[in-house]
């Protein structure tokens, strides 16, 4: 079987690429169409890309958070690019020379619509991996969240989205948590499956020795991956780190997971300006605190830390999935805005402690330190909200069974 994988965002590309790797291991051929950006995640996985239909846009895919970003994308040719992308999917899906074809749509309604439209006019069947939505955004297992209005149509998936998923050409719907699967199954008779969350795959630690003593604390700093926003986030998180170091009565190791696209020297200079002593290229110290810049130790950082200071999307969710509490603070965007931070806190429940300003980190930490049951609660919550590793393989095996 030949598979066309459509995704719309960097995080979605990563998830889609992991599933494609597992499909390739099962003997299937896959080609990727990243609707946003040029598909670096696919390139790293050596998955062929329909590169003539890709283009890097100014927004980086965050048009939902900022209408100005959308306007810049439109000026850069978004409409024409979308038309060409849809034409490619239409031709690929309806090509009769190869009967065994399947479209794998990963993300939100956009790739779902790209898969659905040609399928209704003689194109190939499709499956949908719904990464963007969860019923936890407006409710928990017991009841609706008191500060959230019930979504139109009674589900986080709008009626038109459910109509696309209800097509007889849609052969599987994979959702990101069990609650969402139960709601779609019981309330709307949709054949949604929960096989885990692919976001938790690929996080196996490398066994790096980060120098954390048995009686010392390790705290991850996650500023995000998109510049220049990540640099601004970093300055805010440095203030949180200083408050944290003064509050925790132990030696503290801050493990800063820095995305490869960010300039570590810019970050290093901001650390020095805050009064930290530079010990070597990536290590800094002040009083009872040590800070290490990590470029290739992301998984080890998440596994070895006790909690996180974060202004990030996917990385925050992964940390919660590993059973770690996180302190977040809203930024200026375009990604980690106040709205995004509040929605993330609803999605991830008690694991997230959202504050308005860095000084409030002290109050949160004192509360955490005085609650002996909190870490156990966070561990169980992370498993419920994010699931166990291995979802990509399970999803690929189910697709193969089709």
Automatic annotation (TrEMBL):
<dbReference type="InterPro" id="IPR019994">
    <property type="entry name" value="Lipid-A-disac_synthase-rel_put"/>
</dbReference>
<protein>
    <recommendedName>
        <fullName>Glycosyltransferase</fullName>
    </recommendedName>
</protein>
């Amino acid at each position: 079987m030949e598979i066309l994988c459509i995704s719309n965002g960097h995080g979605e590309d990563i998830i889609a690429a992991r599933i494609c790797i597992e499909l390739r291991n099962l003997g299937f051929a896959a080609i990727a169409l990243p609707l946003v950006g040029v598909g670096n995640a696919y390139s790293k996985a050596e998955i062929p890309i329909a590169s003539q239909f890709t283009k890097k846009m100014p927004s980086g895919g965050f048009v939902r958070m900022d209408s100005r970003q959308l306007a810049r994308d439109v000026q850069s040719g978004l409409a024409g690019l979308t038309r060409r992308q849809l034409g490619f999917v239409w031709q690929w899906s309806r090509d009769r020379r190869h009967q065994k074809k399947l479209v794998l749509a990963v993300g939100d309604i956009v790739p779902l619509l790209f898969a659905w439209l040609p399928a209704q006019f003689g194109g190939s069947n499709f499956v949908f991996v719904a990464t963007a939505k969860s019923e936890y955004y407006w409710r928990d297992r017991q009841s609706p969240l008191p500060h959230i209005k019930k979504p139109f149509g009674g589900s986080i998936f709008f009626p038109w989205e459910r109509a696309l998923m209800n097509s007889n050409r849609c052969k599987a719907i994979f959702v990101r948590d069990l609650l969402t699967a139960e709601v779609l199954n019981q309330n709307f008779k949709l054949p949604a499956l929960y096989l885990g969350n692919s976001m938790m795959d690929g996080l196996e630690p490398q066994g790096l020795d980060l120098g954390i003593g048995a009686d010392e604390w390790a705290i991850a700093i996650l500023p995000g991956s998109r510049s220049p926003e990540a640099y601004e986030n970093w300055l805010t998180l440095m203030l949180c780190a200083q408050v944290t170091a003064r509050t925790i009565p132990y030696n503290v190791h801050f493990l800063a997971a820095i995305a490869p696209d960010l300039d570590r020297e810019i970050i290093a200079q901001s650390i020095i300006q805050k009064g930290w002593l530079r010990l070597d290229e990536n290590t800094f110290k002040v009083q009872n605190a040590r800070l290490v810049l990590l470029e290739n130790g992301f998984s080890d950082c998440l596994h070895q830390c006790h909690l996180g200071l974060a202004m990030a999307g996917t990385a925050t969710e992964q940390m919660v999935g590993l059973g770690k509490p996180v302190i977040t603070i809203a930024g200026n965007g375009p990604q980690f805005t106040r709205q995004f931070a509040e929605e993330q806190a609803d999605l991830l429940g008690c694991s997230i402690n959202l504050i308005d300003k860095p000084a409030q980190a002290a109050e949160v930490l004192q509360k955490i330190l005085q609650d002996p049951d909190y870490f156990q609660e966070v561990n169980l919550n992370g498993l419920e909200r994010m699931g166990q590793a291995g979802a990509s393989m399970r999803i690929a095996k189910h697709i193969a069974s089709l």
